[in-house]
């Protein structure tokens, strides 16, 4: 390329960048460049027809479908895993229930023996939270156990089951039980009396009596019929009472010290505000401890007695005994139901999110297709 052509090339680039023309020839070229920039180029119709004919037809937007081979492998594998997990759970659960069914059978034998022989009464109990089973005694010598210690604060709970001959005696015994509690300084917290149409009946009574009258109450309640079972538990509350009393004394000393400090007229305002906040917190803590100690005293001075009165023809639920295989299948079916519930819950929670993601993906793909079609038709 000659020197002149090099100079012309440099000037042409300068004109393209927008520099002012220097000669008449550059002015003509600058005008030509302006016309080219302002002009709109259109492709010939023949070229446009050839491009449209060669362009692929717009494909229908559809979701990607998983492979059939993958579905044939994943679905049976998931079902097999779920069934295997259910069988393992059923096998493990059936083994642990064997001891429970044995205990149920032993309990039924004990109830049958109780119907065939005179009922037993409870022995004396002591300790903290210990249930005492009844010992052998005749109905004429039924005595309630001697519970608790007069010098300590203790909470006593007792439960009795007494059998009466018929429904009329059940009604009379229910009324007598509430009168016994009232005569001993207590009260009946709740009474549930049921006599179904099929015969028999039962009465469930919750009594509250003073702690010093527990033995008398148990003896008189046991005499309402034939004593089937009796349990007594005692929980020592003396330690809790002592701890709460020590905390109350400490908080009272703290409140007195804070009040004495606040009476000082030379106390700065900032420290006075801090002491007032501490005083309010101490008073609130003192009120809480006083309330807790009141509950402890009430629990120690009042005993709870649960009495169940039932007739000779009271309905006993029938226990269906299953073999080991039956228990395993029952547990496996229950586990499969639990798995199905979890899957359904997952679908309910994740379904809207999956649908939203699919909708966003479809809109993005549709927009891309429209842009391609617009470029082809331009």
TL;DR of this structure?
With 378 residues, the protein is α+β, with helices and mostly antiparallel strands. The chain has helices spanning 3-17, 24-38, 45-54, 68-116, 167-183, 214-222, 238-262, 269-301, 324-377, and strands at residues 121-122, 134-135, 154-164, 187-194, 202-210, 226-236, 302-311. The chain has three domains: 3-41; 43-95 and 326-378, no CATH class; 120-312, no CATH class.
Q: Layout of helices and strands, plus pairs?
A:
Elements: H1 3-17, H2 24-38, H3 45-54, H4 68-116, E1 121-122, E2 134-135, E3 154-164, H5 167-183, E4 187-194, E5 202-210, H6 214-222, E6 226-236, H7 238-262, H8 269-301, E7 302-311, H9 324-377
Helix pairs in contact: 1-2, 4-9, 7-8
Describe the structure.
The chain is α+β, with helices and mostly antiparallel strands and 378 residues long. The protein has three domains: 3-41; 43-95 and 326-378, no CATH class; 120-312, no CATH class. It has nine helices and seven strands. It has helices at residues 3-17, 24-38, 45-54, 68-116, 167-183, 214-222, 238-262, 269-301, 324-377, and strands at 121-122, 134-135, 154-164, 187-194, 202-210, 226-236, 302-311. A five-stranded mixed beta sheet has the order 4-5-7-3-6. Strand 4 and strand 5 (202-210) form a beta hairpin. Helix 1 (3-17) packs across helix 2 (24-38). The longest helix is centred in the last third of the chain and has 54 residues, at 324-377. The relative contact order is 0.12. Mean pLDDT is 74; it is low at 1-6, 113-145 and 314-319.
